[in-house]
Specification:
By secondary structure, the chain is mainly alpha-helical. It is built from 20 helices and 5 strands. The protein has one domain: Amino acid/polyamine transporter I. The protein has a 3-stranded mixed sheet with strand order 2-1-5, with no helix packed on it. Strands 3-4 form a two-stranded antiparallel ribbon. The two termini are 40 Å apart.
């Protein structure tokens, strides 16, 4: 029965992540880049706004709190194991496509966050609710698409949000510390329960503290490895670019697998790491304190910059340079992305493995927190506030069970659910692209202007 299920998921995943999805997602990134006037040029402004408090504006959490929660959800195992998996499945060239997905995906993250804020609503108890489901319902008058997005997101939260992450924690802890997976599941489920029952402000405060720490620790480890591999950095860049478009061995025994395969896994893992096009980060962007939609949309877009343009690129160069320097790593690790990453970081005695273990635990734990909020908002959209307790109990249950399941099956399921989320969200940003352009033109040169839109009150 399990083999039949896995076979079905593999075939579904192959269909969902075929050429049409690659064209749809990457095409949307390109289209919105031109539609927004290359919003990537405003990244420095977005970074500055990230650290600017705007407490006088409407919202539940600070701009940085919203960004930190979104980053907590995206800077996860995708940046470590996911990049290794992209190389294992698509060859080194997948890193090039993953990076391009980040560069152009900035515009899509900006667009989906903008409409999430523009069409957000306020509950009678003062909470902000928003995201693609509200943009679809209020902006396009397509509630059925909003319902579909919310359903896909709830299920995705159990996969990409909790199952994949706690499984990764359990595997790395068992391998390096000898602790049984069920113990990891128990600890994670109890500690996460304590935090998520505290609400979005509690989640955001934890993420604000955790995200900078884990990012600095991980980057420090990567820099040490790059110094160790300094003479292979330029050759690794050459391999990454050349294998993105060609087949055949290039250097050090590393082989390209063609444009279609490399782009498929590169774009899929790029989406997994930065979630541009999925609409997930837009859900928490809608809760931010902001004067107008453009202001917070710029802040949200920096998440893709940090996550993929910077961190995934660094990880890719670290992995490929290590494989070129040590061919035995390539031969042993090309069948398993997690094993590949472990072998690379193990080059540095004690410090390397410690960095990887702590990095994966922190990254994955933060992702679990961020996605709990996404799932809650979608569950509330579908069933009202009364459903939150039930959703949280299911979320915690997944955290307990997932460490005992097959990681490959969970990854495949997560990829399929990600693709299903993309479809209604991309429909929203494409059909509302004129609204996005109009709002951008209105506020981009007057970033402190207050929005004229009145936030409607809903009975939730």
């Amino acid at each position: 029965m399990l083999e039949m299920l896995e076979s079905f998921i593999i075939e579904s995943n192959r269909f969902l992540w075929g050429l049409p999805m690659i064209i749809l997602l990457f095409g949307t990134h390109l289209y919105l880049t031109f539609k927004t006037g290359f919003i990537q040029k405003k990244m420095w402004l977005g970074i500055k706004l990230s650290f600017t408090k705007d407490e006088s504006s409407s919202g539940d959490i600070s701009q940085f709190g919203a960004l930190a929660t979104a980053l907590a959800s995206t800077i996860g195992t995708g940046n470590i194991i996911g990049v290794g998996t992209a190389i294992a499945l698509g060859g080194p060239g997948a890193i090039f496509w993953c990076w391009l997905t980040g560069v152009f995906g900035i515009s899509t993250k900006y667009a989906e966050s903008l409409i999430a804020i523009k069409y957000r609503v306020k509950t009678k108890d003062g909470r902000m609710l928003g995201g693609p489901m509200y943009a679809l319902e209020r902006g396009l008058h397509s509630k059925w698409l909003g319902i579909l997005f919310a359903i896909f997101s709830v299920f995705a939260s159990f996969g990409i949000g909790s199952g994949v992450q706690v499984n990764a924690i359990a595997k790395v802890v068992q391998t390096n510390l000898g602790i049984e997976p069920w113990i990891v599941g128990t600890i994670c489920s109890i500690t996460i329960a304590i935090i998520i029952f505290g609400g979005v402000k509690k989640v955001a405060s934890i993420c604000e503290a955790l995200v900078p720490f884990m990012a600095i620790l991980y980057v420090a480890g990567c820099i040490v490895i790059l110094v160790y591999n300094y003479d292979y950095i330029l050759p690794s860049l050459n391999v990454i670019v050349s294998t993105a478009f060609t087949k055949g061995a290039v250097a050090g025994g590393l082989a390209g697998r063609g444009v279609i395969v490399a782009s498929r896994y590169g774009i899929a893992r790029g989406l997994f790491t930065n979630e541009s096009g999925m609409g997930s980060a837009a859900i928490v962007a809608a809760a931010a304190q902001t004067k107008n939609p453009v202001r917070q949309a710029l802040v949200s877009a920096t998440g893709t910059f940090w996550d993929t343009v910077v961190l995934c690129a660094i990880t890719g160069v670290v992995l490929v340079s290590s494989m070129l320097k040590n061919p035995e790593i390539a031969s042993m690790g090309m069948q398993d992305g997690g094993e590949l990453t472990s072998l690379v970081f193990a080059q540095i005695p004690t410090f390397g493995t410690f960095t990887l273990v702590v990095g994966i635990i922190c990254f994955a734990y933060a992702t679990i927190l961020g996605w709990s909020y996404y799932g809650e908002r979608c569950a509330e959209y579908l069933f009202g506030k009364k459903s939150l307790w039930v959703y949280r109990m299911f979320y915690i249950m997944v955290l307990f069970v997932a460490p005992l399941m097959s990681l490959n099956l969970i990854w495949l399921l997560a990829d399929s659910l990600n693709a299903l989320m993309v479809i209604p969200n991309v429909i929203a940003v494409l059909l509302l692209s004129e609204v996005i352009k109009k709002e951008t033109d209105k506020y981009i040169d007057d970033i402190d202007a207050s929005s004229y839109d009145k936030i409607p009150i809903v009975d939730k």
